[in-house]
Amino acid sequence: MPAETVVLLPGTASDEVFVRSVFTEPLSQVGAVFTAPAVRTLRERLTALENAPAGHPIVVGGVSLGAHVAARWAAANPDRCAGLVLALPAWTGSPDGAPAALAAKASAQVVATRGLEAALAGTTGWLREELGRAWRGYGDLLVPHLEEAAESSAPTLEELRSLDVPVGILGCTDDPVHPIEVARQWAEALPRAVLVTTTLDAYPHALGRAVQAWRQAC
């Protein structure tokens, strides 16, 4: 049996460096062939899945916005998807006031009017380090990307119910930007999902537990 090909996408204004840091080790433990493409826009995230180099169905997923894009792609391409690894879904369907969408809009406004350093001022520790690197990597695309992410659609419950493949989903019980209720809603709608949870003090590497959840769902 060939090794699973896994393509994982970053969240809003995040990057492939973060995705690799979180998922490389857990995916290597299950023998998967792992790709984290360098993408900056929603279109590039979708194109990365469309162009994934595999002659067989692939496992797709990602973090937050990356999970949204991957799940919607899987629903539209059921014959090409072998499973899903999803961390921190932020909303279902329309963003309509979702905390993550509001945060993206607010960040775009601060970056546009006061600059990158002002937008990073309220962050500390690993989050500041990660955002500082990733946001600078977006350059002039940062503000328009934050704005497009805030307006983007996540999969609907109907789309999630159509995904009859093994799914590992990770939610956080105390992350106000990625409410645990969303992860639970997704897990209930997905026919073959295993949900695992974590807490903010275990970030960021606990996100890799979505890999074990996916394997449990197989």
TrEMBL record:
Residue span(s) of domain Serine aminopeptidase S33: 42-205
Gene Ontology molecular functions: hydrolase activity
Top-rank taxon, per record: Bacteria
Stored Pfam families: Hydrolase_4 (PF12146)
Keyword Iron found: no
Keywords: Hydrolase
Name under which the protein is recorded: Alpha/beta hydrolase family protein
Lineage, highest ranks first: Bacteria, Bacillati, Actinomycetota, Actinomycetes, Pseudonocardiales
